[in-house]
């Protein structure tokens, strides 16, 4: 058994333990870890979230138990004070010693504190550990009691801005001081820095660039900072975040080779000048650099584990320093070489000061390769650009499309298909799974479904952001092996949603049991039941009351379940127009039932905190006042948002409110594969944000322009023009056709934008179907919609009028009691559930 | 919050000491859940019509400690009867209470008997 000692229990030290614990030769090693902090390793990347978390434990990378369960001895709160390389021993501050065969230095770094006069005054802090944050918070609380609110952060780099955000979260008026003439000088150019600065300053922070601090002045605490240019800044506390210094004291003392400006020299095996000692993370000096990001540190941990286990893994020759993150609420990304520009290399820049967006890409002049870039304000293109850069892939004909989007013509992703990526391309960055690994898991026969692949490779098991890429890879790989890939609903129905839709219609299947008997097996599940419910609703316009048990859990109770199991209630407010009388009814009901009240994004009012048994009582009052269900709980039409339009607005061209109400009234209750949202704007200023909806109508001279297949959410998409200058009736006619065609053909939980992405022929084909009627089904689609419209009924009215249906709102079958386990806590004159 | 969990320990049919009548079969929805109360416990009861089977488990979802499982959707996974929590769709076997998403949480299950149209649940306390 070999003895491994790890000095340092930070993120990289922990990663080393995690990788060693999972190694096949793990049993050959006895592992002892020393950490000088008393907590086990925690997530320093998300340190600024500490103030919003209720417990520091949520930042832990693994619980203390984890180390025991994996046979790793964790000695936290114990410091190593020296290393004796000849005898292979380390000594602790308690003068104990431990022997090693392999020693891993993962001591990380300490904040760099410049030698400014007065830097030792109370009120000066660094920003690195949870203890630092606690000290900052305590001091801030003390200041606030004295009526002082000004904090400054020295350092406008990545960490400095994180610290500034933390100070702002504490309710302090925060200034940032940076020595260089721009923010994040390692990642951003001047224009990007300017954009970020104006974004940050719009949130009330102030940025001072090109400032060299001379002295921190103050009697009891800090009063001001003097700069070398004879200016000064008033402040009550100072947080220093001006870079890092590798913690190489131990290495220096025992004679290991170190760099001039700090850091323990390592080769590409992570070996130091003593072959029994390895260094990883921010203390390691590799290729003349210290790398303050976790990704290279994690890679080093993997190399070190492999090396001591006799493997041959080597560190990548060049370290990728690309980052994408949110700083003070602003998206910022930087990849490759963000600054490079010379005779062969040219930059393409897009700057939009109105929206606060700056993008830059650096490409080889012949347009063949992407070398790096910067994004501020909108980093949604980062993944695509990063893949193009890291895999040195061929760029599209007009490289500017990469940051501007395709203008005119058929839109196509710059990446093309995920299949075009090389095998080395990293698909899941959380778990570092490459395209090759995913494809191999299928071609080797080990996996044959998406869930097999997730289990085996761990891809998509963490944040899930790569799920669609993994699905596409699985489907394509199976196809290439000659296997038929069917997008079946679930294990109970071996049909796609569209096939089931056709079967239900063709055989006039009336309920779920009949569908299971004829075309399925087993009991069904939470996947297929809502799909069938949606199909029945779309074909027969049946409400969620008729087959309540197969409805998704929100539809079953006609309300949206919230954190503590209570519900929210959203009555329909068509087009967002509401009379003062009805508004007062909502207020009275909310008051009577003590409901938390909030305006929704869809111009409605959401009433939260209703208990199951209160739902019918609340709805009785709402219905008596003329309200109807808003279907906020369903995969169905939500709202048609409107701006006030030509009746009041001096710019309005047409009456957008009346048209929105007409559209919302027409499609209310319509169930669909996913939720549907609409918008109507009275002019091209687009105040209703109609292009962010599944369908959007915008007034222009001569009629309405109809846009389709947009959405907000995680993958925002602007709706695309389907037809121009329509009159009211034609617009409704096209909408009828579009909606029924989508409802018939989309996959479960597929919104209109991804549906259009997958539709062969794209928007041009959709135009042919909807406008030109190339399939000859337009009349049928319209008739189907008219039938659904005719059969609409408010399902809440239906429910409260039927005692049998009311049974489901009784909390306990065997008792008339209500659920007393619910706890609410007060918040800004209202209430909220007790937090998790 | 975790103390709440201690109220719920699985009971095997042969170990049940008290059989508590919680209602008549017609009081419970078909192929869905409903909740009953016994002392300080909230118990979810499910009736699967296709196999004419009854199941009972804790109403408390161990993931976020909320009393919600009776309002989840039922179904089966490879023939194992299950319930999906309405909050985050964690699914649990109604046969042994194990989590079917490969996570650590599990739930307590209780035996159910039907006699003369009445529904009884077995407890040890």
TrEMBL record, chain A:
Q: What's a GO biological-process term for it?
A: nitrate assimilation
- InterPro entries, from UniProt? BFD-like_2Fe2S-bd_dom (IPR007419), BFD-like_2Fe2S-bd_dom_sf (IPR041854), FAD/NAD-bd_sf (IPR036188), FAD/NAD-binding_dom (IPR023753), FAD/NAD-linked_Rdtase_dimer_sf (IPR016156), NasD-like (IPR052034), NiRdtase/SiRdtase_haem-b_fer (IPR005117), Nit/Sulf_reduc_fer-like_dom_sf (IPR036136)
Work out whether the entry's keyword set contains Secreted: no
Annotated metabolic or biological route of this protein: Nitrogen metabolism; nitrate reduction (assimilation)
* SUPFAM superfamilies (UniProt xref): FAD/NAD(P)-binding domain, Nitrite and sulphite reductase 4Fe-4S domain-like, Nitrite/Sulfite reductase N-terminal domain-like
Q: Which cofactor does it need?
A: siroheme; [4Fe-4S] cluster; [2Fe-2S] cluster; FAD
Residues in Nitrite/sulphite reductase 4Fe-4S domain copies: 634-772
Q: Does the keyword Heme apply?
A: yes
Domain annotation FAD/NAD(P)-binding: ranges? 2-305
Could you list this entry's UniProt keywords, alphabetically sorted: 2Fe-2S, 4Fe-4S, FAD, Flavoprotein, Heme, Iron, Iron-sulfur, Metal-binding, Nitrate assimilation, Oxidoreductase
- State the free-text cofactor note: Binds 1 siroheme per subunit.
Which Pfam families does this one have? Fer2_BFD (PF04324), NIR_SIR (PF01077), NIR_SIR_ferr (PF03460), Pyr_redox_2 (PF07992), Rubredoxin_C (PF18267)
Please give one Gene Ontology molecular function term for this protein: nitrite reductase activity
Q: Which residues form the NADH-rubredoxin oxidoreductase C-terminal domain?
A: 322-385
Q: Which residues bind [4Fe-4S] cluster?
A: 643, 649, 683, 687
Q: Where is the BFD-like [2Fe-2S]-binding domain?
A: 427-474
Superkingdom in the source lineage: Bacteria
Q: Which PANTHER family match?
A: NITRITE REDUCTASE (NADH) LARGE SUBUNIT (PTHR43809)
Please give the family membership noted in the entry.
Answer: Belongs to the nitrite and sulfite reductase 4Fe-4S domain family.
Q: Protein name, please? A: Nitrite reductase (NADH) large subunit
- Organism source for this protein? Algoriphagus aquimarinus
Instruction: Give the source lineage, highest ranks first.
Output: Bacteria, Pseudomonadati, Bacteroidota, Cytophagia, Cytophagales
From TrEMBL, chain B:
Q: Which Gene3D superfamilies match?
A: Rieske [2Fe-2S] iron-sulphur domain (2.102.10.10)
Keywords associated with the record: 2Fe-2S, Heme, Iron, Iron-sulfur, Metal-binding, Nitrate assimilation, Oxidoreductase
One GO biological process this protein is involved in is: nitrate assimilation
Q: What SUPFAM superfamilies does this protein map onto?
A: ISP domain
- One Pfam family, short name please? Rieske_2
Give one GO term, molecular function aspect: nitrite reductase [NAD(P)H] activity
Q: In its keyword annotation, does this UniProt entry include Iron?
A: yes
Protein's organism: Algoriphagus aquimarinus
Protein name, UniProt field: Nitrite reductase (NADH) small subunit
Q: Which InterPro entries match?
A: NasD-like, Rieske-like_NirD, Rieske_2Fe-2S, Rieske_2Fe-2S_sf
Ranges for domain Rieske come to 20-121
């Amino acid at each position: 058994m070999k003895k491994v000692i790890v000095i340092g229990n930070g993120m990289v030290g922990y990663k080393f333990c995690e990788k060693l614990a999972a190694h096949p030769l793990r049993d050959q090693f006895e592992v002892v870890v020393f950490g000088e902090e008393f907590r086990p390793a925690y997530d320093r990347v998300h340190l600024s979230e500490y103030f919003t978390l209720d417990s520091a434990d949520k930042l832990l990378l693994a619980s203390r138990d984890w180390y025991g369960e994996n046979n790793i001895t964790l000695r936290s709160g114990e410091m190593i004070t020296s290393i004796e390389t000849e005898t292979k021993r380390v000594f602790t501050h308690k003068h104990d010693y431990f022997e090693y065969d392999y020693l891993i230095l993962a001591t990380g770094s300490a904040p760099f504190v410049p030698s400014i006069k007065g830097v030792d005054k109370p009120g000066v802090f660094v920003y690195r550990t949870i203890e630092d944050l606690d000290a900052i918070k305590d001091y801030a609380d003390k200041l606030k009691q004295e009526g002082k609110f000004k904090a400054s952060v020295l350092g406008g780099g990545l960490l400095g801005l994180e610290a500034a955000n933390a100070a702002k979260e504490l309710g302090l008026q925060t200034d940032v001081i940076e020595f260089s003439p721009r923010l994040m000088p390692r990642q951003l150019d001047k224009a990007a820095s300017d954009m970020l600065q104006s974004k940050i300053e719009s949130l009330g922070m102030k940025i001072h660039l090109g400032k060299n601090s001379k002295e921190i002045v103050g009697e009891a605490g800090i009063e001001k900072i003097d700069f070398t240019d004879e200016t000064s800044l008033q402040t009550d506390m100072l947080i220093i975040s001006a870079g890092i210094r590798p913690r190489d004291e131990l290495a220096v003392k025992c004679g290991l080779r170190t760099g001039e400006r700090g850091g323990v020299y390592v080769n590409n095996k992570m070996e130091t000048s003593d072959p029994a000692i390895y260094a990883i993370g921010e203390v390691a000096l590799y290729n003349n650099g210290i790398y303050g990001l976790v990704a290279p540190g994690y890679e080093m941990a993997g190399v070190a584990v492999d090396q001591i286990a006799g493997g041959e893994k080597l560190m990548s020759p060049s370290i990728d320093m690309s980052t994408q993150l949110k700083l003070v609420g602003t998206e910022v990304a930087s990849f490759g070489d963000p600054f490079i520009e010379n005779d062969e290399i040219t930059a393409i820049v897009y700057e939009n000061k109105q929206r606060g967006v700056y993008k830059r890409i650096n490409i080889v002049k012949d347009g063949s390769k992407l070398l790096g870039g910067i994004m501020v304000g909108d980093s949604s293109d980062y993944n695509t650009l990063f893949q193009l850069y890291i895999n040195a892939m061929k760029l599209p004909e007009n490289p500017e499309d990469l940051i501007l989007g395709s203008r005119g013509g058929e839109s196509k992703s710059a990446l093309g298909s995920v299949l075009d990526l090389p095998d080395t391309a990293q698909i899941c960055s959380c778990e570092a799974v490459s395209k090759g690994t995913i494809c191999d898991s299928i071609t080797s026969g080990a996996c044959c479904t998406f869930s097999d692949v997730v289990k085996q490779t761990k891809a998509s098991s963490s944040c899930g952001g790569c799920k669609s890429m993994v699905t596409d890879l699985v489907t394509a790989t199976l196809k290439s092996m000659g296997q038929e890939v069917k997008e079946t609903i679930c294990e109970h129905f071996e049909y796609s949603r569209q096939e089931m839709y056709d079967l239900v219609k063709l055989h006039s299947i009336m309920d779920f049991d009949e569908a299971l008997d004829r075309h399925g097996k087993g009991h069904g599940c939470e996947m297929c039941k809502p799909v069938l419910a949606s199909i029945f609703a779309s074909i027969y316009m049946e409400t969620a009351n008729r087959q309540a048990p197969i409805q998704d859990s929100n539809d079953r109770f006609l309300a949206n379940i919230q954190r503590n199991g209570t519900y929210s209630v959203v009555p329909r407010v068509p087009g967002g127009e509401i009379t003062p009388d009805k508004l007062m009814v909502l207020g009275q009901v909310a008051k009577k039932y003590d409901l938390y009240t909030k305006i929704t994004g869809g111009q409605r009012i959401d009433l939260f905190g209703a208990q199951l048994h209160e739902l019918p009582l609340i709805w009785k009052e709402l219905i008596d006042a003329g309200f109807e269900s808003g279907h906020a709980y369903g995969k169905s039409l939500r709202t048609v948002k409107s701006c006030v339009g030509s009746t009041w607005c001096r710019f309005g061209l047409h009456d957008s409110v009346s048209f929105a109400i007409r559209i919302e009234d027409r499609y209310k209750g319509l169930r669909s594969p996913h939720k549907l949202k609409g918008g109507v704007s009275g002019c091209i200023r687009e105040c209703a944000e109609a292009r962010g909806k599944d369908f959007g109508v915008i007034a222009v001279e001569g009629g309405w322009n109809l846009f389709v297949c947009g959405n907000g959410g995680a993958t925002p998409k602007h709706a695309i023009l389907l037809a121009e200058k329509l009159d009211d009736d034609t617009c409704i006619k096209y909408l009828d056709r579009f909606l029924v065609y989508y409802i018939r053909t989309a996959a479960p939980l597929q919104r209109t934008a991804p549906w259009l992405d997958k539709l062969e022929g794209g928007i041009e084909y959709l135009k042919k179907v909807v406008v030109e009627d190339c399939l000859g089904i337009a009349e049928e689609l319209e008739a189907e919609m008219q039938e659904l419209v005719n059969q609409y009924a408010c399902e809440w009215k239906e429910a409260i009028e039927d005692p049998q249906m009311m049974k489901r709102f009784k909390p306990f079958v065997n008792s008339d009691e209500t659920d007393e386990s619910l706890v609410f806590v007060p918040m800004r004159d209202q209430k909220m559930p007790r937090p998790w | 919050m975790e103390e709440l969990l201690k109220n719920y320990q699985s009971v095997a049919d042969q170990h049940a000491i008290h059989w508590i009548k919680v209602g008549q079969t017609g009081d419970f929805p078909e192929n869905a859940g409903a909740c009953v109360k016994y002392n300080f416990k909230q118990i979810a009861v499910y009736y699967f019509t296709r196999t004419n089977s009854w199941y009972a488990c804790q109403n408390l979802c161990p993931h976020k400690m909320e009393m919600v499982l009776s309002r989840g959707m039922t179904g089966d996974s490879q023939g194992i009867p299950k319930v999906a929590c309405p909050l985050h769709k964690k699914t649990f076997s109604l046969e042994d209470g194990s989590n079917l998403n490969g996570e650590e949480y599990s739930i307590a299950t209780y035996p159910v008997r039907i006699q003369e149209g009445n529904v009884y649940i077995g407890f040890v306390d």
